[in-house]
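Task card 7
Instruction: Convert sequence to structure tokens.
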Amino acid sequence: MSAASTVAEPDSSAVSGLAAKLRDTMTVQPMKFCFVADPGQFRPEGSHIGRVPLGIVGKEQLMRALAEALRMPDWFGMNWDALSDCLRDLSWLPPGRIVLVHEALPVLTSEELSSYVDLLAFAAGDWKPLGSYELAIVLPEWSRHRVLELLHS
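Output:
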């Protein structure tokens, strides 16, 4: 399965319900985070989906996975600053909703994970509703407490 794909239609009514949850979450939460039971089955209609697979260990693997998932441009520098720049640009992708689906949290040092979650929140919150692009972050439900804890620390 390709790390990044565009999906025209949800697979089932359960997945359609997840798409509705994302839409509702994105309206209510300025951070644009959505926590779902099974990120592997999450396929919102009409979105470009980038998937961060299970088993990511370390910042280098995470950067490579993100570069593949979002088809990052050649100038992507594989570091936090470059990631922030790219997630706040997205012009190399077709306009619309970009959904970055994490099948699990990457295994990073506490400092790196905190930096990553903060960066995602900042980048997703930087996009204005009804603009050319919109960035949403999907994470497994089991990670909610840890992610929110990191955001409030």
